[in-house]
Amino acid sequence: MALQSLDIAKRSATTTEPPQARKTIEVAKLIDVSKCIGCKACQVACMQWNDLRDEVGSCGGTYANPTDMTDQSWTVMRYAEVESEERGLEWLIRKDGCMHCEDPGCLKACPSPGAIIKYANGIVDFHQENCIGCGYCVTGCPFNVPRISKKDSKAYKCTLCSDRVAVGLEPACVKVCPTGSISFGSKEDMKELAEERVTELQERGFKNAGLYDPVGVGGTHVMYVLNHADKPSLYSGLPNDPTIAPTVSLWKGFTKPLAMAGIAVAALGGLFHYVMKGPNEVSKEVEAEVEKELEAEK
Amino acid sequence: MIRDPSDLKRYNASERANHWVVGICFILLALSGLALFHPALFPLTGLFGGGVWTRILHPFVGVVMMLFFVVMFFRFKHLNQMTQTDWEWVKRAKEMVDGDDHNMPEMGKYNGGQKLLFWFLGAAMLVLFASGIVIWRAYFSAYFPIGVIRTGALLHAAFAALMIIAIIVHVYAAIWVRGTIRAMLYGTVTRAWAKQHHRAWYRQVIGK
User: Fold this and answer.
1) What is the pTM of this model?
2) What are phi and psi of A134, to 5 degrees?
């Protein structure tokens, strides 16, 4: 690898260890929803940097446009109107996109070697040239992020601007955010920044403010500061406690060696049974009986 | 073509062709499925023109297999009803595998093991077809909730593995019991084969 920032930590459908002599810092993007005004500049910057252009959609009843992520929209602002006795009406806006899990469900599920890569810096990236279009990444993702293109059947999602990060730039959405709601840096620094902000929010009366860095997926490289961290699902269905589904873990974990062993035992069992017990041939006795019967018939 | 006029007909041409269509589909499905199941076997995708083609072709071959399997299933269903004697055979199967078939009960056209395999394959095909539709991303996955798709993927892999093991047993049994494979190649078996392995069926076809 020419660029240390592109050292690989995990590779889909690969059972051997990746090169790991070099150590690099882990990066993270911190999205402070309490500072977000829902302007969608991040969406625009994402389209511009990545040369994407989604179709003009229709209104789904909120400001969200498009209404969902697509192969052309790797990030979408989601707008939730939430009413509570305590705070009245609140407009909770969340920039949705790939969370860049430390333990990515998409990568675990992917059957194609090298189609999904997790860099040593924590970024999870899809390499479309190796993608076979099976959609297992969608099955594996706890956040419903990957989208399969209808044109080329390849999976797409936020790259955390891995190309920009590789050369020392921050992701396009971070660069463009006018309120400073999105920050980028080492994961350690981002956690510190979040801690300061959470304290501030708590002082201002958001007693449940906190950092969203879910342990169920080993933490994420996109984190949120939420003013209601006790109820992430208020933010347009952000999972409260995301994990790789047990069915996916079983499918991609235990089943694989068990099935391979079972098949090998069956095949080798047959061979050795034949070698040790010999074929099951018609006995001479029965053959003679049948001969006699045939003679008698004539 | 008649090889020996005293040979007994076990399968007609249509039944044999039906079986081989299903068999060929199975081999293609097992190879392409294993390629997408375990990273070590991913190179098998090369047999199908690469990963993308493997992903495209596998489910269509599955549909063809299901269609022909259903025909075969209803053709042979009535011959595969388990009886008391079949269970007796299953209980003694270990003796036969050990090389001694003297105490095996008399069997009709199919023995207890063949019948159990028949019903297992029927169930496995049903699960594989249903779960296969659910995880067929290009056309159907969008209609199912994510939990169903995840369960579908797990069931598809598990039942495929069980079915591959069952078919290995099926093929090995045909190789082990000499004189069996010809039944599925040109339809006939020798009288001695029939008398030794399926004595009740033997009596029935020769009319004694």
Assistant:
1) 0.93
2) -75, -25
